[in-house]
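SAMPLE LOG
Freezer: B-3
Tube label: C17
Construct: single chain, 260 aa
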Amino acid sequence: CDFMIDGHCHLEQQQDPAFFDPERVIAESKKQLNAVITICTRPEDLERTEVLLSKHPEFVHASFGFHPYEVISHSEKEIEQYIEKIKAAKQQASAIGEIGLDFFLIKDPEQQKRCKDIFVQFIEFSKELKLPIVIHCRDAHHETIDILSNQDARQVVFHYFGAKDFTKQIMEEGWHVSLPVTVAMRKSFKDVLLEIQEDRLMVETDSPVKISGEKLILPTDVRYVIERIADEKKTSFQEVEKLTDQNTADFFSLKLSAKD
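STRUCTURE (predicted):
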């Protein structure tokens, strides 16, 4: 039996049930996985996340954050209220995130500045709760790394989009990288992998996501990322699975029950 962990998915997002039914996906995932980390990225999804955690306490773990693109449509008051709600749910939180910067989606300089301010606010919040951070970073690597470094953020994982040039810097800072299915499908995957130290490597699906109109990526597809790593490193699936599971469990402080 496998013990895989999907280190980053979005089970809590409101979806069309015909497209994505969280309960059905969780039931299927439990046959192959030991755990999933669902990433709550906005206030509207907080309660749904808490419901999933209460229904599947051993299996579903959660990170609570604010996607930079969601930040721009919420007021200061709404952000404060969200932080208070996360604080109230801190016993259920394995991390804060995803948080960060996205200058691919957000071009306006004023909005970019606001995103930076809220990013700093959430880093400080993560320290207050003594929780690690999950980073979303797109077209803003210098800025993201500078902010994290200036804030002396230690326990950090980059939800990875494949910016190979910055991977070395991420490693130098002592941070982690979580590789999704989309990056594992690229030709550049081997080059990216060479930059990542084994004890800082995690795997994820970022599911549910449809890739170029093809099949829907789900948490069980984390298997594909593990297979690709094993293939590139010329090692066994079991070795990579054991390594990435351990890294993920350590990073998120997961207490995993052994499967039969």
